[in-house]
Amino acid sequence: MLKTHLTEKNISFVEKLVDQDDAAKDEMLAKSNGYLGVPFTVVKKDSGEEESIIGFDKAKTNRALGIQE
Asked: Total structural domains in the chain?
């Protein structure tokens, strides 16, 4: 659902498979305070600030990306 939503909005993203990539898993654990569920999204803003989103929350994702629907 998240990948479909981002693709439909022409938002580029990097998918990291935490079950296959230990470095990606460690990065996720550090940024999520130990949460291991997916999807887990980190939005990197132009200011350098990062916003983490646990699960697929369309409204929160849209706000973080500046998408208005």
From this structure: 1
